[in-house]
Specification:
about 180 residues, mainly alpha
């Protein structure tokens, strides 16, 4: 933690800007960061899935499917919980976005975990509809895109333009004050 504060002297408690001065990134910037995060997560998922398959001696993609999904869910929870509690993932660093709580402080690991669980709202309705109605891949993808688009538009109903899972988790995505223009 001391190392983090040495690297980010302007983000200490005494020098942190007031919550009202924290600028929300544009929707386009947040979605670009989201897509970049997906690209980076490909490697995390690949390595974790390889590890799971090797340790369980899984020979088919249908073997241990639910255990594999639960394992990957936990791996992603650890990944996001770790990085969000430190302020940024690699994609967020690239796009100069930080995650803070409602008061502008670093997230606790519990709040980061709560945000992780709530962020699955991005995916749960299309997944539930697919399971319920046995949608083929193309319709599932279309339903997913429509839901993500609706979820993005709902952010506009918030005063600070935050996504609903951020509002419910008590978190905010803000521009990194060191890189504001």
């Amino acid at each position: 933690m001391q190392r983090l504060h040495r690297q980010l002297p302007d983000m200490t408690e005494s020098a942190r800007p007031a919550t009202t001065t924290l600028k929300t990134p544009t929707l386009a910037r947040r979605m670009a960061c989201w897509l970049y995060e997906g690209v980076l997560l490909f490697g995390v998922i690949f390595i974790a899935d390889y590890l799971f398959s090797a340790l369980t001696q899984t020979r088919s993609g249908l073997q241990n499917r639910h255990e594999q999904q639960a394992f990957l869910f936990v791996v992603l929870g650890i990944y996001f919980g770790w990085f969000w509690s430190r302020g940024q993932t690699l994609a967020m660093k690239t796009w100069h976005i930080r995650i803070v709580d409602a008061q502008g402080h670093h997230l606790t690991q519990w709040r980061a975990l709560a945000r992780y669980v709530l962020s699955w709202i991005w995916f749960l309705p299309p997944l539930a509809a697919s399971a319920l109605w046995h949608l083929p891949g193309g319709q599932m993808a279309l339903l997913g895109l429509v839901w993500v688009g609706l979820w993005m538009l709902l952010a506009r109903t918030q005063p600070q333009q935050q996504f609903w899972h951020d509002v419910w988790a008590g978190t905010r995505l803000v521009m990194d004050p060191r890189f504001e223009r």
